[in-house]
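Usage example:
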Amino acid sequence: QKEVEQDPGPLSVPEGAIVSLNCTYSNSAFQYFMWYRQYSRKGPELLMYTYSSGNKEDGRFTAQVDKSSKYISLFIRDSQPSDSATYLCAIGSGGSNYKLTFGKGTLLTVNP
Amino acid sequence: DVKVTQSSRYLVKRTGEKVFLECVQDMDHENMFWYRQDPGLGLRLIYFSYDVKMKEKGDIPEGYSVSREKKERFSLILESASTNQTSMYLCASRSPGGTAHQPQHFGDGTRLSIL
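Running the assembly step on the lines above writes:
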């Protein structure tokens, strides 16, 4: 079983739709959860970071973590064409372990 | 804002050449990373450095080496470039940040083609 699984999509939605992006993970030692957004021909940029179960909201974006199910989600409300990008989940176990484990990314297109 | 700068956006080299990719960060971060990103394979860690002159192999170090002589600069070296090293290379940095796992901050990548 892979450590982090992410549906690669592609996902295509109309402008204004609610988007749900998801990752599952297998290692219960994972404690820190991030979502990165990567535009075409650019590097990943940090979008959301959380380390506890529950929801974290930032504008139109909500990150949700369910540690009991080993499941994380990113919701985008009122999606815009400028949200079109690849979204990567990344998970870390913390402490002295420097490594992040990345999902392979979901390509999202928001159509005007 | 954290700034991670990679010296080249696009690079074309020939097989057998020694290739240097440079990365500079301006936030005094101890940790720096080199990844490659390929379609269908995602981000794969090549090497990381947790401090000056310190390095550890990542998941795919074969054919690569690194150098970290100054805190702000981390170089990736392809000793003898091969066509299977054609890829997008991404540099990242982070601060160890005590007990919290600090997120990594990425540069915009170098798209390297080996002919």
